[in-house]
Amino acid sequence: MAGRSASPAIGIELGTTYSCVAVWRHNRVEIIPNDQGNRTTPSCVTFKGTQRIIVGDAARNEAIRNPTNTVFAAKRLIGRRFSDPSVQSDMKLWSFKVIEGDGNRPDILVNYQGEETRFAAEEVSAMILTKMKEVAEAFLGCAIKDAIVTVPAYFNDAQRQATKDAGLIAGLNVMIIMDEPTAAAVAYGFDSNDVNSIVKKNVLIFDLGGGTFDVSLLSISNNVVEVKATAGDTHLGGEDFDNRMLNYFVQEFKRKQRKDISSNPRALRRLKTACEQAKRILSATTETDVHIDCLYEGMDFYSTISRTRFEELNIDLFNKCIETVKRCHEDAAIDKNNIDLVVLIGGSTRIPKVQQLLKDYFSGKDLYKSIHPDEAVACGAAIQAAKLSGQGTEEIENLVLIDVTPLSLGINTLGGITSVVIPRNTPIPVQKEKVFVTSVDFQSDVMFEIYEGEGVQSEGNNLLGQFVLSGIHPAPNGETKINVTFEIDKNGILHVSAEEPISGEKKQITLINREGRLSKDEIDRMLHEAERSRMEDDQFIKKILAKNAQEDVADLLGRMMNELQEIKSKLSEMSQYDNTYSNIGRSHYGGESSNFCNDHSEGRE
C-alpha cells in the first residue's frame, strides 16, 4: 500500500478546450466546481496589458474583446516544434500570435505588462494547472501538492515530458502522467462495478475531445484494467470541426460582401465562437441560424447551417475516427464482434453523426453513455491518485493498471532504417535491451539517434533526440558491441542507457538534441515567475478586498448620515407640528394646552 499523504491528491484532465479536476473523498469521486460553480473550466488564458493574468471562464469572456492576448488550445502546441505542419496550419486560424522560439519551439507572443512577451506552451498550460490547483484548494480548504495529470494516449515522449514540466511550473508534484482513455476506463470500471467482476470484458474507449482523439481497447476484470492496444490522433477533435465551419462561413462572407476577414483577429474570434455554439445546437436540432451584428467594417453576418451541411463539411474527419477504431482492435487481434462495450468519452462524442457511424461499425451495438463524457477522465485520474497517495478504499488499493506505449521506439541504423527496440502497444513500465555494433573501423565514438513511429525509414518517424557514447574500445568494423537499454517509466517517458561489454564500463547517456524542450534553467525561471505571479495575484486580491472594504465602510457611513438626516428632518417636522398645534389650542380655547387636555378628559366622562 502507498504511504498515506497528509493532503488529498487530485486528478486533473488538462484539456484542449476545457479542463476538469476531481478528488476521491468520502469513499466516492467528487468533481470540484470552480469559482463560477462550473464543473469544467475553459483552458483559456488572457493577458490584460499591465493587469494580472486571467484564467478560465473570465478569460473566455475576454476572448472577443481581447482576441490577440487570449490564448486557447495550448495543448496543441505543447511538446511540438514550430515547424510542425499542424502548428503551421493552426496558426492561420488563431487570433493570437505564435512565433518561432529557441530550438524550433513554438512561442506565444502577447502584450503583457506593457510590452510584448513570449510564453512557451508549457507556461500557459502551467497557468491552467495552477487555476485547477487553486480551485481544488478553495474547495478542500487545504494546500494541494500531489496530482495526476492526464494526456492523450497518443502523446509522444516530448509532449508527455512537456506536460510534466507544466505541472512542475504550476507547483505540483505530478505523481504520474496518465493516459486519458485509461483514466476513463477506470472511471467506467468503478461506475459499472465491472472492475470487480470475474467475467472479463473487452471495452473500447472512444475518446473524442476538443483537440485530440484516442481509442483504447482494454480488458477489465478482477480489479485489473489492462490496455491491449491504443490508437489515435493528437490533432483531431472539436476544434477541427469548428474550423471547418469557420472556413465555410469565411468564404460565404467573402462571397456575399467581397471582404476577407481571415486576417482580422476580432472578426475571426467572434465567428469562431458562433461556430462553436452552432455545433452544439446542431447536436440537438437539424438546423440553426448564425447571426453576428457588425462582424466586419460595420457589416452584419447572417446565415443558416443545417446538420446535414455540417456533417458534409466534416465527413472525412468522422470517417478517420472509424478507421482509427478499426486499426486499434486489429492491433489487439480482437474481432470487433468480441468487443463487449463501446464507451463514449469527450464532448465531441455528442455529435449525432459520430454516434451513428460508430454504431453502424459495430452492427447496431448500443453505445455506453451513462458516464459523463466531460468528467470521466478526471474521475479516473482522481481514483488512481487516491491509490498512489494511500487514501483510497481497499477496492482502490487492489486496482492494477497495465498500460501500453502507443508508438514504437528504436535506433536509426545504417541506411536510415529504424531498428525497433520497443514495439508499439508494449505494456509499460518496460525495459528492453538491444545489441548494436560499430559500423566504422576503430571508431572511438558512436552517435545514436532515437526515433519513435511506425515507419521503416527513420526520416518518416519522429526524432526524439541523440546521445553520444564516447571512449569505446577501438576495433575493426562490427567487432565492438554496445548494449543499448530503453526503459519506459510509469509516465510513458523514455530513458536510454548504453554499455560496452568489452570494458565492462557502463556509460551514462545524455540526450543532446531535445529540440524545443525547456531547459532546467528555463523551468527554474518559469517557476520563479509563476510564484511571483501568484504573489502579485495575492496582493491584487488583498488590494481589491481592502478597496471593497473601504467602499463598504464609506457606503455604510453614507447610509447612516442619510438616515440621521432623515431623523433630524422628521424631528424638526414634529417640533414644528407641536408648536403649530399648541398655537391652535391656545387660539381656540383661550388657555394652555393642559386645560384643553383636562377639558377633553372631562368631556369623555
Keywords for this structure?
605 residues; alpha+beta; disordered C terminus; six-stranded mixed sheet; seven-stranded mixed sheet; globular; 13 helices; 29 strands
Summarize the structure.
The protein is of the alpha+beta class. Helices cover 38% and strands 28% of the residues. It has a 7-stranded mixed sheet. Strands 1, 2, 3, 4, 11 and 12 form a 6-stranded mixed sheet that branches. The chain has a 4-stranded antiparallel sheet with strand order 22-21-25-26, with no helix packed on it.
Side by side, the strands of the main sheet go 19-18-13-14-15-20-23
Percent helix range: 25-40%
Oligomer: single chain
Number of helices: 13
| CA distance, first residue to last residue | 96 Å
Globally, the shape reads globular
The secondary-structure class comes to: alpha+beta
User: Cα-atom Rg, whole angstroms?
Assistant: 33 Å
Pfam families: HSP70
Region (Disordered): 583-605
Protein name: Heat shock protein 70
Family: Belongs to the heat shock protein 70 family.
